[in-house]
Automatic annotation (TrEMBL):
Domain of life: Bacteria
This protein's record includes keyword Lyase: no
Statement: the UniProt record of this protein carries the keyword Glycoprotein: no
Native source organism of the sequence: Kiloniella antarctica
Segments passing through the bilayer: 40-58, 85-102, 108-127, 134-152
UniProt protein name: Tripartite tricarboxylate transporter TctB family protein
Domain DUF1468: from-to ranges: 9-161
Keywords attached to this entry: Membrane, Transmembrane, Transmembrane helix
Length: 169
């Protein structure tokens, strides 16, 4: 029952966040560049996130009204914070670590190479580390980031960070 109540609160906070961000998207200035208006993509993503949050809210309300949990509280662990939460949240830790490295390396590697390394490192850290999977991770990183880079650079004419490495060429 506690888990369902937490889900309702999280879903409500997500909906509130989306509402604030959608209203803030009306303050995005139009600099007059040709193509899509600057608020188009943020609003699209926020509306998509709002729809998913609404589904999450509805699902969590249904669960909280139908679920009756008779579980006892888990005993308190006296383990250190890192040891206590590492296995529970290690994937999130890996994501934040690699994303912060990716952001800090954008000036040097640029979006293309930095993105490829980020996707490869994340797939390798979260997945299996066999030779077959490493080759698959390389292929996925090159194709997915390369395709997105081509789409944003040439079709949508977005100036992505090129980095010092690409500016040499």
């Amino acid at each position: 029952m506690v888990r369902a109540k937490q889900d309702v609160i999280v879903a409500a906070l997500l909906l509130l966040f989306c509402g604030v961000m959608i209203s803030a998207s009306y303050d995005i200035r139009d600099l007059g560049y040709p193509g899509l208006k600057p608020e188009t993509w943020p609003r699209f993503l926020l509306i998509l996130l709002s729809a998913l949050s609404a589904l999450y809210f509805i699902r969590s309300i249904k669960e909280s009204s139908t679920t009756k949990v008779l579980e006892k509280d888990e005993p308190q662990n006296n383990k250190p914070f890192i040891q206590k939460y590492w296995f529970k949240y290690k994937n999130a830790f890996w994501c934040f670590l690699f994303f912060s490295i990716f952001l800090s390396s954008l000036d040097y590697l640029g979006m293309l190479f930095g993105g490829m390394l980020f996707v490869f490192a994340l797939l390798t850290a979260l997945g299996e580390r066999t030779v077959k999977n490493l080759i698959l991770h390389i292929i996925i990183a090159v194709i997915s980031v390369g395709a997105m880079w081509l789409l944003f650079t040439y079709s949508l004419r977005v100036n992505l960070p090129e980095g010092a490495l690409l500016s040499i060429w």
